């Protein structure tokens, strides 16, 4: 018989932070290319390829799925009802609301991209 281990808020926070770091790194790739090259045509092509709206929407949706299944749901749905009484829930509640904030901000980003209110041109000065 397997014992149910309680979900650690620290592990869920690590998933959330790692997902944010991957999203930030993927957004910075054209900027890093610009630091080592003066070829503006290649940089513009890289920005058009790397930061096209469908690719950004896919990456953000994938990040949302990872945070949902690895952080939000384990905190919202504990393994056993008795595990809710085992420890103070302050840390778990705080991480849960951070995850909810991540989901809402991602949804807002996708809505702004979809309606055209947000244009993807981070290198345009």
Question: What are the segments in which pLDDT stays under 50 over at least 5 consecutive residues?
Answer: none
Mind summarizing the main beta sheet? none
Question: What is the mean pLDDT?
Answer: 83
Structural class: mainly alpha
Order of helices and strands: HHHH
Q: Give the C-alpha Rg.
A: 19 Å
**Share of residues in helices:** over 70%
Tertiary shape: elongated
Describe the structure in your own words.
With 125 residues, this protein is mainly alpha-helical. The protein is 71% helix and 0% strand. It is built from four helices and no strands. The chain has helices at residues 9-36, 40-50, 53-76, 90-115. α1 packs antiparallel against α3 (53-76) and α1 runs parallel beside α4 (90-115). The model has no long low-confidence stretch (mean pLDDT 83).
In short:
By secondary structure, the chain is mainly alpha-helical. The chain has four helices and no strands.
Which key terms come to mind for this protein?
single chain; 125 residues; mainly alpha
How would the blueprint of this fold be written?
Blueprint: H1 9-36, H2 40-50, H3 53-76, H4 90-115
């Amino acid at each position: 018989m397997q014992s149910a281990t309680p979900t650690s808020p620290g592990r869920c926070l690590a998933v959330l932070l790692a997902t944010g770091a991957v999203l930030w790194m993927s957004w910075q790739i054209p900027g890093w290319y610009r630091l080592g090259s003066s070829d503006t045509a290649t940089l513009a092509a890289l920005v058009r390829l790397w930061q096209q709206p469908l690719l950004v929407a896919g990456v953000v949706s994938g990040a949302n799925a990872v945070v949902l299944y690895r952080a939000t749901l384990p905190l919202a749905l504990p393994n056993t009802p008795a595990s809710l009484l085992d420890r103070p829930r302050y840390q778990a509640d705080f991480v849960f609301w951070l995850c909810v904030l991540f989901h809402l901000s991602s949804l807002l980003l996708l809505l702004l991209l979809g309606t055209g209110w947000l244009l993807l041109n981070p290198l345009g000065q």
